[in-house]
Every structure is written in structure tokens, then in C-alpha cells.
Amino acid sequence: MSDEFHMTPWHLVAFLGELVLWSCAAWAGWTLVIGPARLLAAAALLVGIVIIWSIWAAPRAKWRLSLRPRLGLITVLGLGVSALFLSVTHWPGIIIALTSTAVIVAAQFMDDRTEGAP
Length: 118
Prior knowledge:
This protein is 75% helix and 0% strand. By secondary structure, it is mainly alpha-helical.
């Protein structure tokens, strides 16, 4: 990738999907824990996923993975969040986390395919 960063519609779609997945991580923490530690669990999962994302998956990450490993990482993160919801059988969370993961993967894949297009 060049030094110049060009936004595409796929970037917006991927970013919106990322926001949803990150929110799902916090929601999973909130759902898993009962009592005063809920907020701490939600914050820990949110901060954890954002840190991982910012290191290896963000568009301007210093150590951004190439496309296939990055899509693999995103898939693993999405499946991990879904598994947290599955552990408490929270179907809305599972569906939203899996859907947002699919949207992110599709948008990043399409953006990579159209990167060289005029």
C-alpha cells in the first residue's frame, strides 16, 4: 500500500461492521458476568478486541497483516465473540456477531479486489 490512503465505500462498510463487532464484545462481557464486575468484563473485552484490531487489522496499523491472515484473524475474533455468547445461549448476540464478522470479511475482501481499479 502506498503512503497515501484512499477511502472507499468498502472501508465504510468494514468500519461499521467493526463497530458492531466491538460492541458485541462488550455486550458479551456484560452478558457473561453478573453483578458489579459486569462493567469491568465489558470494558476488558472491548479494550482487548480494539487493541488486537489496532495492531494487526486496522488500515493504518504498523504491523497490518496481509489480506488472508487478516481475514483469518477477523474470523477468529468474530467466532470468539460468538462463542462467548454461545456459552450463555444468547442467540441475538451470536447472530449479530457472526453477521458483523461476515460483513467485515466481505468488505475487506472486496476492497482488496477493487484496490487497483480506476
